[in-house]
Automatic annotation (TrEMBL):
Residues 27-198 form the 3'-5' exonuclease domain. It comes from the Bacteria. It comes from Acinetobacter calcoaceticus DSM 30006 = CIP 81.8. This is 3'-5' exonuclease domain-containing protein. SMART domains: 35EXOc (SM00474).
Amino acid sequence: MSEASPLLDKASIQQLPPFENLTHQNIVVIENIEQCKNIENELKAAHFLGFDSESKPTFRVGEVSTGPHLIQLATEQKAYLFHVNSFTLKFLQPILSNPKQIKVGFGLKNDKHIFHKKGIELEGCVDLAKGFSHFGFKQQLGVQKAVALLFEQYLAKSKKVGTSNWARKPLTSQQISYAAADAYAALLVFQALRKQKLLPAHIYQTIQTALQA
C-alpha cells in the first residue's frame, strides 16, 4: 500500500488475508517462578520486545481497576503471557524498567500509570501509535490498521475477547491468541518500520540512546 493510500476503512481491512499469528506451540503462558527462570536468558538477551498488557474490565461506576492482570512480551519467535502475581512481577521488573531494552506496543499512554501502581517504572517503551506520519496519517493508528497498512493482512480484534476476564485461569484459547497477537504484531510492525527507515525521529532517538547506553 502506497503513501497515498486512503484511510483504511473497516470493511476493506476485513477483506484482507488473516494476520499470520504465532502458533499456540509458540505461545507460552507463565504463572510461576520456575517458568520464569526457564525463559530468563532469552528475554534478557532481547534488544527489542513486543509489549502489551490486559486488565479485567470494570463495569460499575467508581470501580477501580486492579490491573494489569496479564502482561505480554513477544520476540520474533515466541510470545510470553504472564499472569500477574508477586513472582511474575518480580521477574518482569528489571526487564520492564530497563531503558536498554526497547519494549514496543500500541496505545501505551495508560500503561506507565497502571504499572507505577504495581511498583514498576516502565522505561525504554515506544508507543507506535503515532509512528505513521510518513504514510500521511496524522492521527494515531491502532495495531489493526498498522498491520493492514504494512502487511496487507487482517488482524481480527474481537471486542468480546478484548473485554473478557483477563484474570481468569486458565485463559481461553481465544484470549491466548488475542493477547499474543497484540504483542507479536507490534514487534513485527516496529521491525518493518525500522527496516524501511520510516520510524519517526523521536523513536530513533530512543533506540539510539538505549543501544549506546
